[in-house]
Amino acid sequence: MKRGFIRFIFSLLICSFPVFNMVRWITMALKSSKSFPELKAEYLSIYPEFLQNAFLLTVINILLLVIGGVLFYQLQVSAKLGRASRICMIICILLIAWQIFSLM
Predict the structure, then answer these.
(1) Which of 4, 43, 44, 84: disulfide with 52, CB 3.0–4.6 Å?
(2) Over the chain, what is the mean pLDDT?
(3) What stretches of 1-104 show up as alpha helix (H) in DSSP?
């Protein structure tokens, strides 16, 4: 049980980076009256220079969500963490779909 709980927390930490990125983008977009290219440049300026690429950030988000979703999937068999793992896995799937949609 203790090992499963540690894996659950680790999965949450992995998924927190993409969620944080998405929340940051949404809050910046809602608070700003700038044009999309200006807002995008401002958003990307937050990251180090080697990460200032929207496509790269989206791919990183997708990979982290896939890893987190797989870990949540593996934790579904746990008696105490099964329901929470299923819910988190579904959230990961929805966020992956959102990220893939944003690539188009």
Answers:
(1) 44
(2) 90
(3) 2-31, 36-44, 54-74, 82-103
